[in-house]
Amino acid sequence: MNQFNIGKIQEQLSSGNWETARRLCLLEIAKGPNAQASMLLHKAYHYLADIPALRATIDGVTPANEDERFDLLLAEVQDAVRLGTNQYRYYFESPEAKAGLSHIEAGGFTASQQRQGR
Q: What is the domain extent for residue 27?
């Protein structure tokens, strides 16, 4: 993936355009295996709160070097912590999720957790 595409995807992620970022990542990955695009796709799925896709994204990635290997392991650990502490459960049960909003559009973790008295 060239730097232009990386920058464009990162710009979409930071702008909150997670679905656009997801689609751009999938286009890059369709060109061939790409750990960097997979990591950005993982981040997009995190913001979209698509847990099955989030987990599957990095399961089949083969890192090209030790830095990529570390990034993948870190992402797996972060996923395990999030899922193990039920950070997502409140979202899936929320009225916002039923309305089709992402967890960020719904106000993020803090807003929903405050409504539930956490």
A: 3-65
Cα–Cα separations (whole angstroms), residue 89 to 15, 92, 98, 109: 25, 5, 13, 10
Is the sign of the CA dihedral 102, 103, 108, 112 positive or negative? positive
- Taking phi over 0 as left and psi of -120 to 50 as alpha, with beta for the rest, 108 belongs to left
Rounded Cα–Cα distance for residues 61 and 64 (Å): 9
In a domain, 45, yes or no: yes
- Residue 94 is given by DSSP the state S
Per the structure, the count of domains in the chain is 1
* Residues 27, 72: Cα–Cα separation, whole Å: 20
Residue 23 maps to a domain: yes
Answer yes or no: pTM beyond 0.70: no
Give the pLDDT confidence of 46-102 residue by residue, as tens digits: 888 887 888 888 887 888 899 988 988 888 888 877 766 655 566 667 777 778 776
Over residues 102-106, the mean pLDDT reads 66
